[in-house]
Amino acid sequence: MIRKLVHNSLNIKAARTYVPYQDLENKAMLNAFLETPSQFIHHFRRYTNSLSTQMLFGFRTINNDDPRLKQLFRSFEGFSDVMGSGAAALLNAFPLLRHLPDVFLPMRRHAQELHRAEAALFLGHYRETKERVKIGEAKPCLCVDLVRAQDKEGFSDLTAAYVSGSLLEAGSDTTSATLVGWSQAMLLFPEVCKAAQAEIDRVCGDRLPDLNDLPDLPYIRGCMKESLRWMPTVILGVPHATVRDDEYMGYKIPKGAGVILNVWGISNDPKRHPNPRKFDPTRWAGDNQTSVEAANNQDASKRDHFVFGAGRRLCQGMHIADRSLFLAMSRLLWAFDFERPIDEITGKEIIPNIDALVPDGGTFVQPEPFEAVIKPRSEQKAQRVREEWSKATELLDDEMQWKAVPENLIWRDYEPAEVAAKA
Asked: Is a pLDDT exceeding 70 seen at residue 406?
């Protein structure tokens, strides 16, 4: 029931209705790059988080210091550390050890503390939105349908909170981390940055790229695919289970066995991708598959990456992630140059460490924080960014929330189950 609800909210048709959200948040991010370029990692996080909070709960996350934004990323990074820990592996291998008291399992106690903080965050988001839905003051969002489903099915607030909260995590973390990896690649491989800018300038000239330019920017599409392969943020995927007995290379895999997808290993297999640590968008020349088409390709050798999973439980937000990545990469490269900082003592360029990832040993990773010099390519482009954001803010109220949500969103007005039954 929950999967059906989520699918109806994130499928290809529904994803098209979120483009106004993506366009506005992207322009907010571009303006933030002008004002505080050194905080680019935080700008990526706010960009993806605000898009997610609008889709799920009907409100924008307007600044990098929002405490709920910070809590979300702290919680996700903490759980990544826990799941990648030796204690977790030990308890998985020897289930009897799970009966030990917490005094002998400090990592489990830490995980429980993380859960309490996470549950409070998710419940807070859901209950605030649910209250607005009940009194008719909620903006259109997925929780409108979730509240209706709760009325009909009777599941708890905590279940509803984790449905919406899990989507909030998925929509916020992976896309922002992919953009952090991409921006590092622009510093490590400056020739890629220049080639991408040349293509954008040729196609778009003095105007911001938009989604209609996607077919005419194959090198940018290659950057998207290569970013997801080169820095696959969910390096071990999400655990799956077999639905029947299977056999692979002589190994029997029994029904119900847990299966881990080694996304990092596949992405960096030199037989599959020669010189895998080189960021090379030309690998994908002629590959016009979207992430959805590639993930569902029956020939697994022709799938561009595995960040969105494999099997029957693929990420349902792939269409949205593709658009967010395209808008971010194309517009940032249109407006800004990405350069390596200079060490004040040695006078040499500071080059990010390609092998340094955080959290170290976790299941979800991204490059450790690094410095970058990000500056407008021209004053004309900077002014265009300001003008675009100024026009976008006309759609917002004094609290920087939407005055009226964009037309054609998929969610219906909330109607209590008893009213719907009488109708």
From this structure: yes
Q: What is the mean pLDDT of residues 348-363?
A: 86
| Contacts of residue 40, Cβ cutoff 8 Å, sequence gap at least 6 | 33, 183, 372, 374
Provide the 3-class DSSP secondary structure of residue 391.
helix
Q: What stretch of H or E contains 158?
A: helix 157-188
| Statement: residue 415 has pLDDT above 70 | no
Q: What is the DSSP track for 315-372? A: -TTHHHHHHHHHHHHHHHHHHEEEE--B-TTT--B----TT-EESTT-SB-EEPP---
Q: What number of residues does the chain have?
A: 423
Three-state DSSP class for 247?
Answer: strand
Beta bridge partners of 129: none
pLDDT number for residue 414: 63
Q: What is the CATH number of the domain that holds 321?
A: 1.10.630.10
- Identify the residue with better confidence: 52 or 76: 52
> What's the domain range around 170?
2-232+280-291+311-422
* Domain contains 253: no
Residue 197 domain-assigned? yes
163 contacts 143 by C-beta, under 8 angstroms: no
| Total-model pTM | 0.93
- The Cα 316–Cα 14 span in angstroms is 11
C-beta separation of 231 from 278 below 8 A = no
In contact, 284 and 221? CB cutoff 8 Å: yes
Percent of the chain residues topping a pLDDT of 90: 74
Number of folded domains in the chain? 1
Query: 337 CB contacts (<8 Å, ≥6 apart)?
Result: 193, 373, 374, 375, 376, 377
Residue with tokens 């699918």: 7
- For residue range 127-144, what is the model confidence (pLDDT) as tens digits? 999 999 999 888 889 999
Would residue 250 count as lying in a domain? no
The answer to whether residue 262 sits within a structural domain is no
DSSP H/E element including 3: helix 2-10
φ and ψ at residue 299, rounded to 5 degrees: -90, 100
Distance CA 17, CA 412 (A): 13
Decide: 253 and 247 in contact? Cβ < 8 Å. yes
Specify burial of residue 372 (Cβ count, 10 A radius: 0-12, 13-18, 19+): buried
Give start and end residues of each alpha helix (H) in 39-156. 40-57, 67-83, 86-93, 106-134, 142-153
Q: Taken in order 169, 171, 176, 178, is the CA torsion positive or negative?
A: positive
